[in-house]
Amino acid sequence: MIRAAILGASGYVGGELMRLIAGHPAIEVGVAFGASNAGQKVTAVHPHLAIAYPGAALAAWDPGLLNGCDLILAALPHGETQRLADQLLAPGIPFVDLGADFRLNSAAEFERWYGEPHSRPDLLETFTYGLPEFFRDEISHSKRVAAPGCYPTAASLALRPLVEAGGIDRQGIIVDAASGVSGAGRAASAATHFCAVDGNYRAYGLINHRHTAEMEMVSGASVLFTPHLMAASRGILATCYARATGPCDPLAILREAYAGEKFVHVGETPPETKWATGSNAAFLTARHDERTGTVLALAAIDNLGKGAAGQMIQCANLMLGLDEGAGLSNMGVYP
Amino acid sequence: MIRAAILGASGYVGGELMRLIAGHPAIEVGVAFGASNAGQKVTAVHPHLAIAYPGAALAAWDPGLLNGCDLILAALPHGETQRLADQLLAPGIPFVDLGADFRLNSAAEFERWYGEPHSRPDLLETFTYGLPEFFRDEISHSKRVAAPGCYPTAASLALRPLVEAGGIDRQGIIVDAASGVSGAGRAASAATHFCAVDGNYRAYGLINHRHTAEMEMVSGASVLFTPHLMAASRGILATCYARATGPCDPLAILREAYAGEKFVHVGETPPETKWATGSNAAFLTARHDERTGTVLALAAIDNLGKGAAGQMIQCANLMLGLDEGAGLSNMGVYP
Amino acid sequence: MIRAAILGASGYVGGELMRLIAGHPAIEVGVAFGASNAGQKVTAVHPHLAIAYPGAALAAWDPGLLNGCDLILAALPHGETQRLADQLLAPGIPFVDLGADFRLNSAAEFERWYGEPHSRPDLLETFTYGLPEFFRDEISHSKRVAAPGCYPTAASLALRPLVEAGGIDRQGIIVDAASGVSGAGRAASAATHFCAVDGNYRAYGLINHRHTAEMEMVSGASVLFTPHLMAASRGILATCYARATGPCDPLAILREAYAGEKFVHVGETPPETKWATGSNAAFLTARHDERTGTVLALAAIDNLGKGAAGQMIQCANLMLGLDEGAGLSNMGVYP
Amino acid sequence: MIRAAILGASGYVGGELMRLIAGHPAIEVGVAFGASNAGQKVTAVHPHLAIAYPGAALAAWDPGLLNGCDLILAALPHGETQRLADQLLAPGIPFVDLGADFRLNSAAEFERWYGEPHSRPDLLETFTYGLPEFFRDEISHSKRVAAPGCYPTAASLALRPLVEAGGIDRQGIIVDAASGVSGAGRAASAATHFCAVDGNYRAYGLINHRHTAEMEMVSGASVLFTPHLMAASRGILATCYARATGPCDPLAILREAYAGEKFVHVGETPPETKWATGSNAAFLTARHDERTGTVLALAAIDNLGKGAAGQMIQCANLMLGLDEGAGLSNMGVYP
């Protein structure tokens, strides 16, 4: 068995990684680092995993514990991977990072959107962007992968094939998206209080959400991105608008782009976030509105699945030469 | 007391009308028609009103019962008001209709979006569009008012002042909106099943939702409208995108437009649907994104409040010479 | 107008008090103390009240500001009223306290359930228990009222008439209740995180929840109480089980007990928490199961309404000689 | 591969069976009967399964299609299995029935609780009750299994070991339980409308819910059962109350009873329904309240998992000599 080291194991993504790995035929948890809960049992932090991890405990960060591990999966707050980079990369173990630190290929773009200088610009080019449907070969040959953010995964799946096919204008794209609350992490705050979210819908991060940079990089287009918080634990729906460059069948373009993909479904029906819950699946549709000259493209994923832990495992499978879908489901838990 | 006849009293809007009227200082329920529940007690259909309407029952439609009424409030399925028009209008009683039948000023537009001819085009011009913040005087002097749809109320409040101020392009406007499930009415269906909505988010009516026509009429601009269904009983958030015509301060435009309005609040913070729950309030904000040349304007309302029953009462107050806010709250029930 | 001083104005109960008072015909807010948010505008803390309180700000605690006030409404954390008692009681202003400090009539019981000595046992007898349906006269003649907890309000409304009528055994009563999350207050914690509550149901405080003492005092019976947290912002349902003493018609007993009450409805249909949302209403039903010799009695309220702010206003109305229902609704906002 | 015939494939349990089977190492879907949706593609009815069942369609009932199948899994409305019994049993294929038809061992009890005579009392004794933790051997040697109802699964897991250990009185047991809406099935109705459930909590079936009979049969005790509907798609929590017969450590009894079980976890923390979502796991705790002489025992499951489809697969695995946990997860999808 491949032994995985998990960083950020006490968060939602960490818990999802542990759930997926417990069902993975070739990977097991070697060590689970959970800074804020170090020393506690996994059961205390993730009671839904109590049967699968009866005795396991979370460890404090100690790079020595990476010895004997064959894979590193990091789900840390933004900035942490830069700080720990030397320790994480030293052993040369295949490494999948979910943080934003090494996703962008430009330190200037990072600084522009994150409001702080990048401390390790020298490493940016050594990471591959971990969206397998677009960069499968690169990921397979890489030892360092930066897994995409949840919103950019959804938006890029919807937009990139349309941009590449020349069907939509690269300027003036709008991504209007809704996310479940787990995307905001496990930290308790006024914004994640049940009563603040239940039955509510609101936009946030108007104009300047950091994921904009990533969407623009991957889709190759200029994007105005508006995230919304919805009353759900999981799920992202990206509703994307672009000007059509001319007659265009966006649904056909998406169908062709994702033919043979085992985690992407393109259909006529507008996708629903709940179809993807707990899975690594993405559901897409598209329309051309001739009246206004607009192309709509919609993508639904589970932000913790294809938008985080699922995609990390998908990348790891590729990096390790395993079946790309090992340990992953393409079916949501519904209803 | 002014005696109101309510049509469609067994639906959600009907129940909200009865709740508002029970707390109204000058209006009382004269007769409540509830076709599908005629003969049943109000308590059986609206148990939350059991104390306020202990003995009342719902009546079958009978135009003779309009005698002695001073106000008609109709919340009927689309098409019904056309069919009943002669009976409803004959007595010359002030009439507020929530249906879509008499909102548009063009029979051609009605046919285009509703897919059927208008049976009473002769009456279209006799109705005033019931959005008090824009047409207060006309409503005050009218005996026939067509209250706006829920989505158009939100979108128009956000967009019309910006269009009128010349701050945004009249072409290429996008309205991306989310609605609570009560907007779909009380009828049980696969789409309104709890399990289909709980924790879910999805778009519907892509490209051709009927409310588009109304938004275009009121805002004076070309609109692509995408409604979404969110996991909430009440609430609408309209997130609107338009190209700026030049330097522009949309927040200042909205603040000026709604200064002195007792049901519209313009603020810096992105509005939340839940702030408006149970009230007639609307909460707005706006931004100018210079990077992409886009203006964002957002409006949150309760679809059953400012988007339906509340606005009907607001119109009726104006028509009857009462205080415009009588019986209405500008505060949501929160959390 | 009567000027009310509110303590704890930045919490959920505080916000509800301000909402109710804004619609009250005879009371207005004199000063709103909000310790943790002192200096902030009401709008910032309670954006749903932005139109009603456009310029108001929250004050830091200063007993001098009670001058000129005619009513004190305190919604403070447990223990605070004991600490502030001398300052609060000195001016002799009618005072309604929602805290647990002065509800119980025995310092020993307080210490037993709250795990700490009572610092002002001398004051216990000077407070009247604020459940108007049982103690209307006492409240009317009192200047110090301790408003009941939310769970005890629901359980006592269901149980006390049955105990008093001798229909149920005073031993072995079980109260199994569910509460919305606002009952846990506005503080952000792991337990109130949206993702921890959404779609979830769990018991807490097994065997030793503090509200047990209050239930036993008011119902005059021995109670085992199990609270549950449900996925709702508001609402409490108490499902109570007791052994029947013999043939018994509990529904008739409740109907008689609450005949003429304007905020209590007794009906055949099992009550739903949502019927009461935003109101001061309570909905009850009961059954006698002859097969097992058990009486069931159920009560649904809004924990912030009849379970907190609504009942405080109801008590204040009585104390001030106003109409008991002034500023209160007996209809929930539904759906 | 073992080929399974699924009856009731268009319902929630049917969809869950198809999801589990798609991930099962030794079972595949042979034919999926979906009466109300016969002829439709699986994708249309279960869009979350679109990738796993791209071309499959639902069949109309035709006993001939059982040829070539090695397993029958029926999730039909109550009464249907009686009606189809001869056709279903004729081929002698291992059969797991989720309906209530063959769970009780007494036709009289069936008639008493279901209000109609049992049409096939001759078959009652030929079925084994499918709760593996209690009847593992019988199930392994049976070709006909009646899988338990969702509520009885939860209640029996909590109660039976305590009854058998003599720790609790067999009289006067109360089961107060809450269920997610999927337990009411996929049919749209006023009671399952999103707006009727969202933010709501209510009891139903007071005194006479049919599952009572099953609970009494399995636990060997007299039970008063009160089900509640909660605002969740999935999940059941049973909170059970019984009189202690004397000093008693119910937690120790449960721990011993379920030692070695791979789907049952007994812990100190009160279990939460969400821990089990999408899995076959059950989470239990218990307490002895010496003050009132009461034992509490709580069990949380996913009503579609351990309460339906998961348990059906667990039984099938036993009947077919497969690993008992094949295709099943003991970890919920959380949050």
From TrEMBL, chains A, B, C, D:
Q: In which pathway does it act?
A: Amino-acid biosynthesis; L-arginine biosynthesis; N(2)-acetyl-L-ornithine from L-glutamate: step 3/4
List the PROSITE patterns.
ARGC
Q: Do you know which CDD domains this protein is assigned to?
A: AGPR_1_C (cd23934), AGPR_1_N (cd17895)
Report the coiled-coil segments: none
Instruction: Give the record's GO CC terms.
Output: cytoplasm
Q: Which residues form the Semialdehyde dehydrogenase NAD-binding domain?
A: 3-142
Q: Which GO terms describe its biological process?
A: L-arginine biosynthetic process
- Predominant cellular place of this UniProt entry's protein: cytoplasm
Classification via InterPro entries: AGPR, AGPR_AS, AGPR_dimerisation_dom, AGPR_type-1, NAD(P)-bd_dom_sf, Semialdehyde_DH_NAD-bd
Q: Which reaction does it catalyse?
A: N-acetyl-L-glutamate 5-semialdehyde + phosphate + NADP(+) = N-acetyl-L-glutamyl 5-phosphate + NADPH + H(+)
What GO annotations for molecular function exist for this entry?
N-acetyl-gamma-glutamyl-phosphate reductase activity; NAD binding; NADP+ binding
The EC number(s) attached to this protein equal 1.2.1.38
What does the UniProt keyword field contain?
Amino-acid biosynthesis, Arginine biosynthesis, Cytoplasm, NADP, Oxidoreductase
Please name the catalytic residues of this protein: C150
Keyword Translocase listed: no
Compartments reported by the entry:
Cytoplasm
Q: Which EC class, in a word?
A: oxidoreductase
PANTHER family, alphabetically?
A: N-ACETYL-GAMMA-GLUTAMYL-PHOSPHATE REDUCTASE, CHLOROPLASTIC-RELATED, N-ACETYL-GAMMA-GLUTAMYL-PHOSPHATE REDUCTASE, CHLOROPLASTIC-RELATED-RELATED
The entry assigns this protein to a family as follows: Belongs to the NAGSA dehydrogenase family. Type 1 subfamily.
Functional description taken from the UniProt entry: Catalyzes the NADPH-dependent reduction of N-acetyl-5-glutamyl phosphate to yield N-acetyl-L-glutamate 5-semialdehyde.
Q: What protein name does the entry list? A: N-acetyl-gamma-glutamyl-phosphate reductase
